[in-house]
Give the backbone structure.
Amino acid sequence: MISGGAVVLMHDLHTKTAERTIGAGCCTRSATNSAATAEHHIEARDSPDFVSHEAILVRSAFSRLERISVFVTRALSADDIVGLPFSLSTSSPQKLGARKDEFEARLRARLAELSPDGQFIELAEMTALIATRAGRTTMKYSVSIDVPNLDDGLKFYRDALGLAEIARPIPIYAVLKSVAMQRLG
């Protein structure tokens, strides 16, 4: 916990490489262009008037910013990649509605072009932008992440970030702790 409070913004970035490496959003933008309309927040981010999270936070009570990250790689099948956009609010089955099947077909066709055997490697940088009140010199990080499947999420965060489960107060909630470091950053 951080006395005085904190704001943490999580994000993943995908590095482009020459191999059959793919970011989770690599093919989804082209597949969604005709299957779904652009979301307001995506259009706003491309606007010349866009103000970044960092610019907003440095002018707020939470003006001390720190970014931490870890690089991860994992093998993905075409089925894994097709499932990822369905977990996002901008391309969920509910959002796509009747366009879901068209979206999935376009995405699968694009994936088949990139890798006929349907196998990919994801190279991602998982980042956290941590904003605390000015004057704080040390922090103990606590992050809450919602995952579609708890067991899959636990495996990912254990393998990718070296986190270990230390408690499960209820069946759908787990508490993890870094086994390698007391303080990240």
